[in-house]
């Protein structure tokens, strides 16, 4: 044997030198849930260690995250049912607590990068991402609402918009609406390859946002498809997306890899609620080593080609690697 790959593994210093992928807190985005009110820290039972925070306590969580070097956050609003309607009109209402929180966080922590969710489902009494008419999810009719929501979020100071409804023509429409209002610096992270997945269960518990009827298969992608992910990503890049997202991540590493090879903008992966819940549950039973598993999972996404990763593990990872 003249070739013995083990020679490059014999010492930690050599292993470190030849390590091909690296993961750091810099690459992570921490998803957080926001509720209206004060002094609220309400644990999500299917996502232990994650909470619905009121603005005051959310600020403390952001402050302690920043101290760990974790400086990117995506916020989701948990809206009470009485504010939901078929038109999702609360999404851009003047008094919307989510918009106030964006403004408040950017005032207190200008160094924090804030990303939003742009879709109807947290605000819709139908629980769908678009307007519903006779059981159909409307594509084009939903666009003006998304534009109003986007502009309201931009006015509040959001850094990155996250159109997440997986319908057609979102990125271009929102880009034009933003630019027409002078918000040329606001970025768009397109949820380009978002699959109709069972892994979103805990998230829908957190927001009480599950569809009231039907499923999301006419807009989210079929988990069997990969070429279609490139079609979606290509359209979003043409329409002006700054980042392309693949979601979920762990069961879709091949899609992350494929888009990384074919796209010219950075790729992000959303390590979604169900993927994290499985790890929390097994760790709680003592069946796996939480820290080692989290590091290995996140590294696998990096190796597959993700530049950034949205993950509920973000703060724990930042804590054990500081
Ligand atoms: C919906 C949205 C969903 C998630 C992020 N944005 C759920 C859905 O499409 O039903 C899921 C994220 C997660 O599971 O962590 N706009």
This entry's quaternary arrangement is: single chain
The whole-number mean of residue pLDDT values reads: 97
How many individual helices? 11
Number of discrete domains: 1
Text of the CATH class: Alpha Beta
**Helical residues, percent:** 25-40%
- Along the chain, the helix and strand elements come as HEEEHEHEEEHEHEHHEHEHHEH
Task: Describe this structure as you would to a colleague.
The chain has 322 residues and is of the alpha/beta class. Helix content is 38%, strand content 16%. It is built from eleven helices and twelve strands. Helix 5 (170-180) links the parallel strand 8 and strand 9 (187-194). The mean pLDDT is 97.
List its salient traits:
322 residues, TIM Barrel, 12 strands, globular
Provide a concise account of the structure shown.
This protein has 322 residues and is an alpha/beta fold.
């Amino acid at each position: 044997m003249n070739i013995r790959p083990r020679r490059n593994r014999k010492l930690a210093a050599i292993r470190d030198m030849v390590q091909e992928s690296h993961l750091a807190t810099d690459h992570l985005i921490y998803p957080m849930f926001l509720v209206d009110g004060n002094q609220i820290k309400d644990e999500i039972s299917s996502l232990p260690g994650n909470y619905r925070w009121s603005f005051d306590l959310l600020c403390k969580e952001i402050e302690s995250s920043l101290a760990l070097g974790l400086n990117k956050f995506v916020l989701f609003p948990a809206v009470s049912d009485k504010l939901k309607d078929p038109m999702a009109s609360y999404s851009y209402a003047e008094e919307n607590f989510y918009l106030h929180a964006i403004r408040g966080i950017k005032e207190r922590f200008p160094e924090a990068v804030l990303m939003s969710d742009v879709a109807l489902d947290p605000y819709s009494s139908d629980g769908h991402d678009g307007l519903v008419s006779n059981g159909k999810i409307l594509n084009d009719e939903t666009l003006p609402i998304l534009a109003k929501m986007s502009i309201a979020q931009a006015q509040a100071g959001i850094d990155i918009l996250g159109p997440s409804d997986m319908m057609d023509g979102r990125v271009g429409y929102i880009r034009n609406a933003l630019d027409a209002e002078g918000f040329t610096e606001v970025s768009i992270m397109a949820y380009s390859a978002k699959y109709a997945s069972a892994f979103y269960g805990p998230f829908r518990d957190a927001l009480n946002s599950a569809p009231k009827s039907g499923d999301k298969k006419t807009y989210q992608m079929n988990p069997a498809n990969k070429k279609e992910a490139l079609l979606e990503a290509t359209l979003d890049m043409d329409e002006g997306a700054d980042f392309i997202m693949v979601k979920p991540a762990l069961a879709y590493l091949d899609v992350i890899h494929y888009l990384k090879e074919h796209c010219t903008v950075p790729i992000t992966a959303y390590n979604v609620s169900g993927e994290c819940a499985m790890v929390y549950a097994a760790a709680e039973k003592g069946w796996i080593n939480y820290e080692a598993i989290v590091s290995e999972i996140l590294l696998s996404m990096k190796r597959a080609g993700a530049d950034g990763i949205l993950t509920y593990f973000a703060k724990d990872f930042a804590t054990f690697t500081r």
